[in-house]
Amino acid sequence: MLAATRAVLFDLDGTLLDTAPDMVGALNQLLSEMGRDRLPFEDVRCSVSHGARALVQLGFPGISKPAFEKLRQRFLEIYRTRLSVETQLFDGVLGALEGLEAAGVRWGIVTNKPEALTLPLLEHFGLRARASVVVSGDTLAQRKPHPAPLLHAASKLGLHPRECIYIGDAERDVLAGQAAGMKVYVALFGYIQLSERPHDWPANGWLHSPAAMAELLATAGKALRL
Questions:
Q1: Pairing of strands 106-110, 133-135
Q2: CA of 146: how far to CAs of 19, 125, 163, 179, in Å?
Q3: What's the pLDDT tens digit per position in 23-34?
Q4: Which pairs with CB-CB distance under 8 Å and at least 24 residues apart come from 30-39?
Q5: For 85-131, how does the pLDDT look when each residue is reduced to its tens digit (9 = 90+)?
Q6: Structural domain boundaries of the chain?
Q7: Is 13 a catalytic residue?
């Protein structure tokens, strides 16, 4: 199955980058500004993949819609000032990407994160120029779980979706990848809530650690060489 792989596409938060420290930090700064208690990191980490809206809802449950929107905008303002203060690549990611490149397997990003936040992060880690395609949350009118962003990425690469692997840490990633006709793997080391059942998601495989993801990518590279 991996022998047909010509490209690997990744979600960003919780898959390639451990962005939780900065996103949780932004929420806690907002809570402090509003005179509320900060939340423990582990209580917030699992919600990071669901973006600003989910984090603000977690920090300010039951707040009115107009007040919520102001808080969401303020959260984004804070987060922009600390995009890469504590954010790191997951262990082994750089080596895995280098292995893909050496094998002639292209890679790219398909994320629901807005472009204004996605591109500076990729630039900071020296990945923007290396990625063959980047599809952000506002590139198209549709976002995951709609398959359009993944289909758009495959089209930009000149590939059929079945020639692509997609790796993400949310159910919407799996649903989007499946609907697009790609092979899909779940990054179990990402930001998955305790109430979720990721092994029930219709994926091709489950990766328990960044090392397991690196091993999958190495296998894909070797398969292409054969």
A1: parallel
A2: 23, 28, 19, 8
A3: 999 999 999 999
A4: 30/56, 30/59, 30/71, 30/74, 30/75, 30/78, 31/59, 33/74, 34/60, 34/71, 36/60
A5: 999 999 999 999 999 999 999 999 999 999 999 999 999 999 999 99
A6: 2-18+87-225, 20-80
A7: no
Catalytic: which of 11, 13, 18, 22? 11
Whole-model pTM over 0.90: yes
Question: Could you tell me if 140 and 148 are in contact, meaning their C-beta atoms sit under 8 angstroms apart?
Answer: yes
Is the distance from CB of 14 to CB of 8 less than 8 angstroms? no
Q: Is 45 helix (H, G, I), strand (E, B) or coil?
A: helix
Please count the other Cβ atoms lying within 10 Å of the Cβ belonging to residue 199.
9
To the question of domain 2-18+87-225 being in CATH 3.40.50.1000, the answer is yes
Which phi-psi region, left, alpha or beta, contains residue 157 (left: φ > 0; alpha: ψ -120 to 50)? alpha
Backbone angles phi, psi at 196, to 5 degrees: -85, 155
